[in-house]
Specification:
Number of helices: 6
Structural class: alpha/beta
Helix content: 40-55%
Largest sheet: 5 strands, parallel
Mean pLDDT: 96
Order of helices and strands: EHEHEHEHEHH
CATH architecture: 3-Layer(aba) Sandwich
CATH topology: Rossmann fold
Bound molecules: coenzyme A
Number of domains: 1
Number of strands: 5
Radius of gyration: 15 Å
């Protein structure tokens, strides 16, 4: 059984993330969406809130589960005996950062293989920060996040 971990901040999960997760679910037997801590980012949603949104978004995918973890990604990968880390690549600008992370993870654990999937063309411009910015000003996030979590995100920003 081949297991992949799709890690990220998911603050919140977007249609771009969901596209990568859906495609990973077609390639691996089991996919774990791992809500993780990026020390360089101050998030709007708590780990639990991000996990709840992700769970709703992947509910239709039977071989996908959601978990959260605040330690090193490679430790989680080892604990789950996962075969791969899956990340999406949007543009060349993502490459340097992603390549550095893949190399650092491999240095920390030589068993940690990273697999990159290219983002669908229609999601090239989508990002969690774009979603947060639009939602915070009451704009439409339709098409940028999975439909089933649009209301939850809108309500959350309306409360701020
Ligand atoms: N389509 C559209 N947008 C996408 C996308 C896709 N397929 N894939 C990613 N993005 C966007 C996200 O929306 C996000 O946008 P933002 O910067 O505006 O928020 C950005 O690209 C990347 O964020 P995300 O995918 O959520 O992950 P991240 O880069 O914040 O994740 C971790 C980094 C969490 C994986 C990394 O910090 C980590 O592994 N942390 C655990 C601790 C650790 O082990 N650290 C050492 C790692 S070497």
């Amino acid at each position: 059984m081949k297991t992949a971990v799709c890690p990220g901040s998911f603050d919140p999960i977007t249609t771009g993330h969901l596209d990568i997760i859906t495609r990973a679910a077609g390639l691996f037997d089991r996919v774990i969406v791992l809500i993780s801590v990026n020390a360089a980012k101050k998030t709007s949603f708590t780990l639990e809130e991000r996990a709840d949104l992700a769970r709703k978004a992947v509910a239709h995918l039977p071989n996908v589960e959601v978990d959260f973890f605040s330690g090193l990604l490679v430790d989680y990968v080892e604990k789950q005996s996962a075969d791969a880390i899956v990340r999406g690549l949007r543009a060349m600008s993502d490459f340097e950062y992603e390549f550095q992370m893949a190399l650092a993870n491999k240095k920390l654990n030589p068993r940690a293989e990273t697999v990159f999937l290219s983002t669908a063309a229609e999601n090239m411009y989508v990002s969690s920060s774009l979603v947060r910015q639009i939602a915070s000003f009451g704009g439409s996030i339709s098409g940028l996040v999975p439909e089933c979590i649009e209301d939850a995100i809108r309500t959350r920003f309306a409360q701020e």
